[in-house]
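Can't paste images in this forum, so I'm doing it all in text. The chain is below; anyone willing to post the predicted structure tokens underneath?
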Amino acid sequence: MPVCIFSLVLNIFLFVKNPPRHSSGVPVIGVIDGDTVVLEGKSRVRLRFIDAPEKGLCGYEEATKLLEKLVIGKSVRIEETIPDQYGRGMALVYVGNTLVNKEMLKSGWVRFHHDNSSVTEELKAVTDIAQKEGKGVYTACQSQDVPDNPTCVIKGNIDKNSTSRNYYLPTCAQYKFTIVEKDIGENWFCTEAEARKAGFTKAKTCK
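Text version of the structure:
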């Protein structure tokens, strides 16, 4: 990595790790999406443990609006900061005694991203409850048996372990067990051509 770029990344990380202090915390001036806030000084901080739907996907608007409600116009406390794989700052974000990361996961509009910190078990527990109660994306953005359109019954599925993108016809093995999770980019399709255009390949288990 060139020295100038390395220095820029380091400075951004150090700013997030030690942001300008105010008596009540660091003011938030914006929100990028459901998992990233912008602090005074325009540095960005991503909430640890959280994966929010990308723009254009199911749940994006709800997650973004909830994070805005929790932090916009308020000052936050940044704790347990670490860099992600790209050198961007990730942290636990508090408004007073309220852990914003936890509130987002409780809502069900964001998914749990495994991490290790002092609150790992606490955040995993609230995520499990949100899933069991079908909050947020766990109901609004998921379907196994009811397509958006009764004639569009092809399921597009993304393998979470390999990120491979496959589609399943009703005659395919595993079809009935496949859940379409639209918040992560999966979808229902009307034709195989439509599924292929979206980047999905016919599953090998299909005959």
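The chain has two domains: 3-139, 142-202. The radius of gyration is 20 Å.
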